[in-house]
Amino acid sequence: MRAPRRVVIHGHFYQPPREDPWLEEMPRQAGAAPWHDWNERIERECYRAIAAARVQSPDGRIARIRNLYAALSFDVGPTLFEWMEHHAPATYRAILEADRLAVARHGVGNAMAQPYHHVILPLASRRDKVTEVRWGIADFQRRFGRHPEGMWLPETAVDDETLDVLAQEGIQFTVLAPGQVAQPPRHGRPGRYRTANGRAITVCCYDGTRSHGVAFGRLLVNARAWKADLLADLDPAVPDAVTIATDGETYGHHHKFSEMALAWVFEELAREPHVEVTSYARLVADWPPVESVTLVEPSAWSCAPGVERWRSDCGCRVDGHANPSQAWRTPLREGLEVLRDALDARFAEEGAALFRDAWGARDAYGAVVAAEPDVRHDGVRGWLRPGLTPAEEVRARELLEMARDTLRMFTSCAWFFDDLGGLEPVQALRYAARALDLAGATAGAEGLERALRTTLRRAVSNDAALGTGEDIWVRQVRPLVPAGVRLAAGAQAAATFVPSWPSPDAPAHQIEVVGERVALTHRRTGRRRHYDVTVQRSGVADVQAYVRPRPDLDRAAPDEHLLAGIVPVSLDEYPERERLAVRDGLRTVRTHELARRLFGEHRLASLALAGTTLVDAAVTELQHEVDQLAGPETGGRVARLLALCDLLELAGHHLPFEAQTRFARVVRALPAPARAPFAEAARRLGFDDTLLVDDEPW
């Protein structure tokens, strides 16, 4: 006999994309410290924790470790999954394995799909809805090896056309908040919705009160109370379902260590004879819908007025205690919608000469985006018109990349938070900038950019220092030096100072460095760019690169059509990967230079034979120089002391406590007028000016 109560706990896993759109690399994000970026931080706090959750024994020790994805119903955003595949492969594999186990045991998996970008679909055209859904399905199929039964809608934002597109593409069910239908079906069962076009799709409504208690209340504070809540009003004679849906980041990120509460509840529910933990897919398979539902449209789970949060100052905000204006939302959407229409027109017009079916090619490009970028096996060629030149094939792929950026301009996060100057709106504008770059000068991109900037003047940040959307565009969005130039500069500098360079694994480009010529090939488009690059070392810790694009060799990439002459690029402007490599290389070079100057080749060889490290030798030598400071040749000894401090700093070693103590004794023993030559040495050893003027006895 099947258990009368089914319990579904669903996690919607998603993070706003924050990569550099031109380089496809995640920059360091200070707010995520001590981790490199927010994806890395949340993976550590949440995604990995759920894959290896600790179940405690009564005495507080670890009884077992469980992969909770095997019990959880879940969906993972494709852009987050793409990051996880490369940067958290163990967690990525654990999620896929959990779904495979569910399929083997129950015939259906625990995983649901998502549209590819986190776009508010009721605000999108039908054509964009179709593309987003098809891309999401393609991504799901590549990762899980099957067609998804269900699809989670971003912010559960829904209207009739959205559900019609899901049904059209073979999606069997979706999940909505209880207020998104006029009357949820009884006993937590699925309902049937029939679209205006006559297509049917199953709708599951989660328990709003219980879900709110998990996400925003105190149910995760006391796992016993949470279990009791899940079993409340259990009637063994009436089969029913209790379904909870929250952001997956609830477990471990929003509520620290709450994945342990989730693990305990799963363990306890498994012991209950009248309860079965299941997934939405199994619930739909076991309980085909009987009752029909009426849609409340357009609506979403995080906006009381419907979907206004993503286009107007509706009052929905993250910080409910503040009262900032969200009037910026309207011009931001208006400006991007006008740009989208113009870019879509350019795609259709230019694409007509390059593709058999331009919009069909865009839909099929989802399989390319979901796969490893490789222009040789990108699946695009079948959509190209026969007889195209190699240059025309490259342009066709650039148009598809432009279409990709046009879609991701509308990632919902750009409007969700409280200010125009946040990471997410800036990210959407960066997608717009790259789309304009790919449109190229011949498409009138400059005029389109001017029109967008004019609209953005009406979008005003709540932070007066940030100004308008146009100010943000100029300062934070539009790079002064194009990505290709920055990457060429960084690659040449790295090749100069890092013996193992160039690295062939840049996410968006293949890199070749031969002499002073750098060639970059974009992995998805095949666009090849050439640069002449020279580098000059400036001082101890800086490298200046001088880059001259070579349009005579590659007909100039679209985003570099305004560049002319030689472009100076400083170390701080290199992409992060190359910048860090160059700094490490400079540190190594400088360390070797200092070591040879301080010890000489013969003594360095003797130290190596004696097993003495360079740091140990530098510490001993520094203490010796401090003891001799008051003797003859003060100037030379101070210079040597400073060089030894440099060497220890380059080696990442702290300044020795004993050297500081000895230095203070030596300097204090001198009359105040005689201390002046030691001012720089005092500063390098961590002292302020007090040591040089204070006559207090030691």
What features would you describe in this structure?
The chain has helices at 38-51, 78-87, 89-106, 126-144, 160-168, 208-215, 223-231, 258-270, 280-286, 329-351, 358-370, 390-408, 413-416, 423-439, 445-456, 469-477, 483-497, 551-554, 576-610, 614-627, 634-650, 657-668, 679-684, 690-693; strands at residues 5-13, 53-56, 62-66, 73-76, 111-112, 173-176, 191-194, 200-205, 240-247, 275-278, 509-514, 517-522, 528-538, 542-549, 567-569. By secondary structure, it is an alpha/beta fold. The strands form 4 sheets. Strands 1, 4, 5, 9 and 10 form a 5-stranded parallel beta sheet that branches. Strands 11-12-13-14-15 form a 5-stranded antiparallel beta sheet. The model has no long low-confidence stretch (mean pLDDT 91).
Radius of gyration: 31 Å
Low-pLDDT runs of 5+ residues are none
Overall 3D form: globular
Query: How many β-strands, per DSSP?
Result: 15
- The amount of beta strand, in percent, is 5-15%
Nearest-integer average pLDDT:
91
Number of helices: 24
Spell out the blueprint of helices and strands:
Blueprint: E1 5-13, H1 38-51, E2 53-56, E3 62-66, E4 73-76, H2 78-87, H3 89-106, E5 111-112, H4 126-144, H5 160-168, E6 173-176, E7 191-194, E8 200-205, H6 208-215, H7 223-231, E9 240-247, H8 258-270, E10 275-278, H9 280-286, H10 329-351, H11 358-370, H12 390-408, H13 413-416, H14 423-439, H15 445-456, H16 469-477, H17 483-497, E11 509-514, E12 517-522, E13 528-538, E14 542-549, H18 551-554, E15 567-569, H19 576-610, H20 614-627, H21 634-650, H22 657-668, H23 679-684, H24 690-693
